[in-house]
Amino acid sequence: MWVKKGVITIIDLRNDYYLVAFSHEYDQYLVLMDGQWFIYDHYLTVKEGSPSFQLTSETIKEVAIWVRASGLPIEYYDRDALHFVGYIIGKTVKASFVWGIWTS
C-alpha cells in the first residue's frame, strides 16, 4: 500500500484529463514508475506532463497493459520465452511468473 509523503492536488481539466501536482518528488516517482492505477475498475493512463500538451487534440498513442497467458505450456515458463511471446503482442516491459499451489 502506498503511503504518500506529501500533498497531492488534482485538477479536472475536462475531456477525462486531470492535472496532478505533487509536493513531494517521491510521490510523483511512485505514481509514474510503480504500478498500474485503477479507480473503480477503470484503468488510469498516467504520463508525465509536457509544455506542449493540448487538451483538445491530445491522443493516447500507447498504453502499458498486463497480459495473462493462461494455459501456456510449461516449457515457456522461462524469462526469455515470455519476453519473446510478449514481443509478438508489442514492446515487452516486464515478464513475471505467478505460481500457485493448490491442494485438496
UniProtKB/TrEMBL annotation:
It comes from the Eukaryota. Residues 1-56 form the DUF4283 domain. InterPro entries: At4g02000-like, DUF4283. Pfam families: DUF4283. This is DUF4283 domain-containing protein. It comes from Vicia faba.
